[in-house]
Write a structure and sequence with these properties.
Structural class: mainly alpha
Helix content: 55-70%
Strand content: under 5%
Number of helices: 5
Oligomer: single chain
Distance between the termini: 39 Å
């Protein structure tokens, strides 16, 4: 199995800003994973399932998050989006989506 690691150095004002924002190392890693997952999906490098794995989410959660965060990224037929969001609704106990 091939493994790759990504390291981003944050120094100076960037490091200070993230510290002031209250983001710890885990928060930054999670944010970076989601950003890379979303952009990789948007560019067609990864499927929704693979991007979800990268983000540490299941496919339904990833698709729902895309719909909420950046609707223009969704590249699924409407019926597939509705099916995915129905799964999320069921997982959340039937609550309404934002």
């Amino acid at each position: 199995m091939i493994e790759r690691e990504l390291t981003i150095e944050l120094t100076g004002k960037l490091a200070e800003q993230f510290q002031v924002s209250g983001l710890d190392q885990d928060d930054l890693e999670r944010l970076a994973r989601w950003a890379v997952a979303i952009e990789s999906y948007r560019r067609g490098y990864l499927s929704a399932g693979m991007a979800a794995d990268l983000a540490g989410a299941d496919r339904a959660e990833f698709v729902a998050s895309l719909a909420a965060r950046c609707p223009s990224v969704i590249d699924l037929p409407d019926e597939d989006i509705e099916r995915e969001l129905s799964v999320v609704d069921a997982m959340m106990g039937g609550g309404k989506r934002p």
